[in-house]
Amino acid sequence: MQFAKLILAATLAMSSVPAVFAQGADPVVLMQTTKGNIAIRVYRSMAPRTAANFLDLVSRGFYNGLTFHRIETWCIQGGDPNGNGTGDFVDPQTGQTRYLNLEVTGALHHNAAGVVAMARSQNPNSASCQFYITKSAMRQLDGQYAIFGGVIDGMNAVFNMGRGDRIISAQIVENGGGGARQSMAPQQGFQQQRRGNGASASNAGTPTDSGF
What we know:
alpha+beta; Cyclophilin; 8-stranded antiparallel β-sheet; two-stranded antiparallel ribbon; globular
């Protein structure tokens, strides 16, 4: 019953989301965290490659148990298997790190709290699995980081998140088409390569996957 209420609340919250974001092809991911539930609308129709990566990791259970290792006044950041900002997703089938080519669109902006985007190092094509959720507008990041979703319910959990709080579980609860959940295995836009030693230091005020 509580789960059903959350889905209803997430659906009602969509009324405050711009129509361009509320695409039928855009699924919802529910994250249960130690500070409460966060429902994220994933913009598969607007950032298909980045969204496919996130949905694939969710479907693998990759995020289950991982921490939010970075807490700032303007964002929370998590999804690092190392728990310290240095980790990436390594494909267990190939033993290689998955990196994403930067995917940006002029229709998506860091214009409010609740924007969900990929963290990366100074290399624009180094995003892998870490993501951040804004707590305020950060328009200076537009065009530099791949936005792929938005929080439609659970911002209280985002604002109350502390360093070390965990993602208990993440799952796709709505696939956008009204049918059964589908596998979102990514197909294009990824760089499969072994992690090198060229990770760059982080810049103050920007989301990165190194230097913490």
